[in-house]
Design a protein that fits this description.
This protein is α+β, with helices and mostly antiparallel strands. It folds into three domains: 150 residues, Beta Polymerase, domain 2; 125 residues; 46 residues, no CATH class. The protein is 55% helix and 11% strand. It contains 22 helices and eleven strands. A hairpin with a 2-residue loop joins strand 4 and strand 5. The longest helix is centred in the N-terminal third of the chain and has 17 residues. The radius of gyration is 28 Å and the shape is elongated. Bound molecules: adenosine-5'-triphosphate (ATP).
């Protein structure tokens, strides 16, 4: 336990200690399960998520903890799961359970069951290892530890990916992140599951793709999905594998080097990475790709609009970006920040990307210093003429024909004289 505590952030370590103490006092059968056990055995330097399985009343167990230590509880009564949030950290506590799938791709119905049965419903043997908190006993009915040693992902039964095809998306994510291979039987089981992908809700597909986008090796995971035939089964165009590498490398480089003003997009980091991932898959792939993805996945409004508008941005000829600055800015001015980000990340034209960068950083802020009051004072009757004058002055600033307030006044005089 001490080696695990050392891998956790302090608030989470405190939660694990509290759970462990409570287990000892009450005698409850509580197990650490899933990714934390896997990563602990693999010797990962740090562990972020803790999942527990309680053989018994999971919600009662976690309610007691909250009463004693404070924090907040988010309870999902139907599945008897709860998230306990305390001092900025959280842990998930579930009832040890059996799952039953009424049809492929559906959400399962659940009933209480011992830990050995709970482990049977999991995705891969490497994720189906439990560690009892009271005494550290490891429950490993599918030889998950052996798989970890051999760096192998093995599904638990031949219908696993028919029951829940999202497991192949999860599998590709783990294989890419951990550098694991699938065993032969699992690859066959995945092939059996592929035709059932269409039974999943768009919400679940979107969720698992976004986990891939935010994980360590998105391009490698997506290439695996391509090989499984996932894109064909979903009815969306297949991404070009070389482009995937290039595009995710570009996201990484732009996001980490701070060369683009991302803050101004006002998006939380996770949402930004999700959106960039969709852009990487869809930008410049043609109208059909956009339409198919929009039919499939329930995108947030801003992402949806940006993906649609990116069609127009991606098809603009690069030649147009040899024009004067005011003209280039006018071409880009009406695109949303997210659409411009897609262009900056993924457009093939360096010239267009440079213009997008300038538009986002500088050009869009350029305004004439003269305002409506000044024009009224000069006797110009209010009307559409105002906009034309402001635009002419703005263009002159952008193109360097006006460099000072005196220049601007002179140009205004000329315009009014006309
Ligand atoms: P990560 O390292 O990405 O956080 P994790 O293994 O902790 O991975 P979670 O999504 O937190 O993944 O799920 C916790 C555990 O629940 C998994 O390790 C796995 O045992 C099980 N699990 C989650 N989703 C599924 C699924 N669709 N089918 C079967 N088991 C699942």
């Amino acid at each position: 336990m001490e080696t695990l505590l050392a891998k956790l952030a302090p608030p989470q370590a405190a939660m694990l200690r509290a759970i462990s103490d409570h287990t000892r006092v009450t005698g409850a059968a509580v197990y650490l399960v899933g990714g934390a056990v896997r990563d602990w055995i693999l010797g990962a330097p740090s562990i972020d998520d803790l999942d527990f399985s309680v053989d018994g009343d999971s919600v009662g167990f976690v309610r007691d903890l909250q009463r004693e230590h404070g924090g907040e509880l988010l309870v999902h009564e139907k599945f008897r799961t709860a998230r306990w949030v305390c001092q900025g950290a959280s842990v998930d506590v579930a009832m040890s359970r059996a799952e039953f799938y009424a049809r492929p791709g559906a959400l399962p119905t659940v009933s209480p069951a011992p830990i050995e049965v709970d482990l049977r419903r999991r995705d891969f043997a490497a994720n189906a290892i439990a560690c009892r908190l009271s005494d550290g006993v490891v429950v490993d009915p599918f030889q998950g530890r052996r798989d970890l040693e051999h760096r192998l992902l093995r599904g638990l039964h031949e219908h696993s990916f028919v029951d829940d095809p999202t497991r192949m998306l999860r599998g590709a994510r783990y294989a890419a992140r951990l550098g694991f291979a699938f065993d032969e039987g699992t690859l066959e089981a995945i092939q059996r599951g592929v035709p059932h992908l269409r039974a999943l809700s768009g919400e679940r597909i979107k969720y698992d793709f976004e986990l891939i986008f935010r994980d360590r090796e998105p391009a490698a995971a997506l290439r695996m999905l391509r090989e499984f035939g996932v894109f064909g089964a979903l009815g969306v165009p297949m991404p070009d594998p070389d482009k995937l590498d290039e595009r995710f490398a570009r996201i990484w480089s732009v996001f980490t080097k701070g060369e683009y003003v991302l803050d101004a997009l006002d998006l939380a980091p996770d949402r930004l990475l999700n959106a960039a991932g969709w852009g990487a898959l869809i930008y410049a792939q043609g109208q059909l790709a956009v339409r198919r993805w929009l039919e499939l996945a329930p995108f947030e409004h801003d992402v949806r609009e940006a993906l649609i508008a990116a069609g127009a941005l991606s098809t603009m000829s690069a030649q147009m970006f040899h024009a004067p600055t005011s003209r280039q800015s006018a071409l880009l001015h009406d695109f949303s920040g997210l659409t411009l980000l897609f262009g900056h990340l993924f457009d093939g034209s360096v010239l267009k990307r440079r213009a997008i960068h300038c538009e986002w950083k500088d050009w869009r802020w350029v305004r004439p210093t003269i305002n409506g009051e000044d024009l009224r004072a000069r006797g110009v009757p209010p009307g559409p003429e105002y906009r034309r004058i402001f635009d002419a002055l703005r263009d002159a600033w952008l193109d360097g024909r006006v460099l000072s307030l005196a220049d601007e006044q002179r140009l205004l005089d000329e315009i009014l004289a006309r």
